[in-house]
Design a protein that fits this description.
mainly alpha; two-stranded antiparallel sheet; elongated
Length: about 190
């Protein structure tokens, strides 16, 4: 097995995509939930999937996790969630990249990239909604009906975010790969 070392170029690309993930998380529209807290529409998911598409499973996962973790660090309500944010976004980009990079090379098929983006987004959606339910019901001791109503509200917003992520990331990855290929950076 040929192992590629992690060089300066990899460090720069991982840092660059982490910064893009962070910036994508900043572009947001808040949405209220039924009882306490908030949720939001944002572009961070597009950038997380893009990190997986462009860098592969591990490097893309780190870029997605680090970018979202830094965003969570800037929002006091999200600080306790930083480890979960890192892990869930890492998993999203990782799964996307594993499917997209099947066989060790980047997929050139729209269908495979759509499947990769959908799988990564669905995994994140399941992890995120499950975590919210655990917090609402077990930690905050909400009644089950209230917790489920909050989860429904968050699931709708998160589902829209997942759809935006898939629709935005797949065409973007083809555009970026073509541009970076012509410039010799890819």
């Amino acid at each position: 097995m040929n192992r590629k070392s992690f060089g300066l170029r990899d460090l720069v690309m991982t840092g660059l995509l982490s910064a893009l993930v962070f910036a994508g998380c900043l572009i947001q529209i808040p949405a209220p939930v039924v009882i306490g807290g908030f949720t939001r529409f944002h572009l961070g998911g597009i950038m997380c999937l893009l990190a997986g598409f462009m860098l592969g499973p591990v490097k893309g996962g780190f870029a997605a996790g680090i970018g979202c973790a830094f965003f969570a660090f800037t929002t006091p309500a999200f600080i306790p969630l930083i480890p979960f944010t890192f892990a869930f976004r890492f998993a999203q980009a990782y799964v996307c990249a594993v499917i997209s990079w099947a066989g060790g090379r980047r997929a050139k098929s729209w269908q495979l990239n759509i499947a990769a983006a959908v799988c990564g987004s669905v995994l994140y959606l399941i992890l995120h909604v499950g975590q919210n339910f655990m917090y609402d019901y077990y930690l905050y001791r909400m009644e089950i009906e209230t917790a489920m109503l909050n989860i429904l509200n968050r699931s709708i917003v998160s589902g829209i975010n997942a759809l935006i992520s898939v629709v935005g990331s797949v065409p973007l990855v083809f555009i970026l790969r073509k541009a970076l290929g012509k410039s010799g950076l890819m």
